[in-house]
Amino acid sequence: MRIIISRICGLLNRQIAIYRQLIDAMLVERKALLVRDIEHLHDALEKQQELVDEIHDIMKDYEEEVENLFESFAIPRHPSIETEQLLKAKLGRDARPLVQLSEKLKKVIERAKQVNRENQRIIEVSNAFFKSYFRLLTDIRSQAFGYTHKGVADRAAGRNVAINHRI
């Protein structure tokens, strides 16, 4: 049983480390979004995908080890029973490292979610900015160069523009 607990602790530590790397990659993403650097943005997104894939692999291993732990207690695992609570009850003091790592992981995951929300907000603001910019640009060009809002030449407007005047 202690071997299983040790493996679970190792998996939790790996997961915490990977989430920290994911946060770093999301911060690189943020910088790339702010300076509009497509190459760094692409690299950051690729790195994030690799890390998310690794987290999924760790989660599979974690679930297997938790199942092994439940089997060692001869207790069926039910979705309604919170794993952490059951482990506290069964392991007593031995559950302390698991609980501490679990709390640490929750904090790191919450930080990752926060950074993700902030990046999403940057994307939304940038998107709104460019939509507004394109609308204004279309209005200006339609007036200055004689085009309708649909991009079709307005012959009447185009004849009066100084740019089209032949010298």
Q: How would you concisely characterize the structure shown here?
A:
The protein has 167 residues and is mainly alpha-helical.
What can you see in these coordinates?
The protein has 167 residues and is mostly helical. It has one domain: Methane Monooxygenase Hydroxylase, Chain G, domain 1 (Up-down Bundle), CATH 1.20.58. Helix content is 80%, strand content 0%. It has 5 helices and no strands. α1 packs antiparallel against α2 and α1 runs parallel beside α4. The chain is elongated. The protein starts with a helix and ends in an 8-residue tail after the last helix. The model has no long low-confidence stretch (mean pLDDT 84).
Please describe the structure with a list of short key phrases separated by commas or semicolons:
single chain; 167 residues; mainly alpha; Methane Monooxygenase Hydroxylase, Chain G, domain 1; 5 helices; elongated
Topology:
Blueprint: H1 2-35, H2 38-73, H3 83-91, H4 96-145, H5 155-159
Structural class of the secondary structure composition? mainly alpha
Query: What is the chain-wise order of helices and strands?
Result: HHHHH
Mind telling me the C-alpha Rg?
28 Å
CATH class: Mainly Alpha
Name the overall outline: elongated
Mean pLDDT: 84
Q: What is the total tally of β strands?
A: 0
Let me know the largest β-sheet: none
Summarize the amount of helix as a percent range: over 70%
Q: According to CATH, what is the topology?
A: Methane Monooxygenase Hydroxylase, Chain G, domain 1
Looking at how many chains there are and whether they match, the oligomeric state comes to single chain
Number of domain units: 1
- Number of contiguous helices: 5
Strand coverage percent: under 5%
pLDDT < 50 stretches: none
Distance between the termini: 92 Å
CATH-level-2 architecture: Up-down Bundle
